[in-house]
Design a protein that fits this description.
The chain is built from five helices and seven strands; from the N terminus they run E-H-H-H-E-E-E-H-E-H-E-E. It is α+β, with helices and mostly antiparallel strands. Strand 2 and strand 3 form a beta hairpin.
């Protein structure tokens, strides 16, 4: 198995991970934290995919994709927090005024889970943010301890996976998802001297 994580740039690859089976379906397309809630409610069916295609054409940082032997099998959303709704989110605090990047969604296709792809996606997202000059990356994973998490609701990732990637607990939040509190984890990229995160 050869896994390569690289910036999301090809619409068809992004659609393979985020798009619906039926073009008319109203799936997230990983837009809910990226755009204002009014626009998120207005974009329906195919308009959601078209919006993502436009973002890709404009060069807007959307995230990274993991490819296994050339096939897109995993996704991680990462972008400057200032370009997301986390900049205004009342439940997730701002630790300081650093222009941090947010990593808020990790998705691995069924049939490819249990191979360490979420770890590769976190590392790839961090490297992408670092290459774009991010001083730090934040994530808002579930603090589930040893409790099982419904895979549909595990999209923010799990605290232990971010700890394994070198992130540290920066703050508690008042956000709860699937019965689990979310915590703010941060990886400072300024003190790493170019070493992998």
């Amino acid at each position: 198995m050869t896994v390569e994580v690289r910036p999301a740039s090809e619409f068809e690859d992004v659609r393979a991970l985020l798009g619906p089976k039926s073009p008319q379906a109203n799936v997230c397309w990983c837009l809910s934290y990226r755009i204002p809630s009014k626009l998120n409610r207005e974009l329906r069916g195919p308009a959601r995919g078209e919006y993502v295609a436009g973002l890709l054409r404009s060069g807007t940082p959307l995230g990274v994709l993991a490819h296994e032997d050339g096939e897109p099998v995993g996704w991680a959303a990462v972008a400057p927090r200032a370009d997301t709704s986390f900049v205004r989110n009342r439940k997730i605090p701002h630790v300081d005024d650093l222009p941090v990047w947010s990593l808020w969604c990790i998705r691995v296709r069924p049939g490819h889970r249990g191979k360490g792809l979420s770890h590769a996606l976190i590392a790839g997202a961090v490297e992408y943010a670092r290459a774009q000059g991010a001083p730090a990356v934040e994530a808002y994973p579930l603090d589930n301890g040893d409790a099982r998490v419904d895979l549909t609701m595990a999209y923010p990732g799990l605290r232990k996976n971010f700890e394994r990637a070198g992130f540290t607990h920066a703050a508690d939040t008042t956000s709860v998802l699937a019965g689990h509190p979310r915590v703010l984890m941060r990886l400072d990229l300024r003190r790493r001297h170019g070493r992998p995160g």
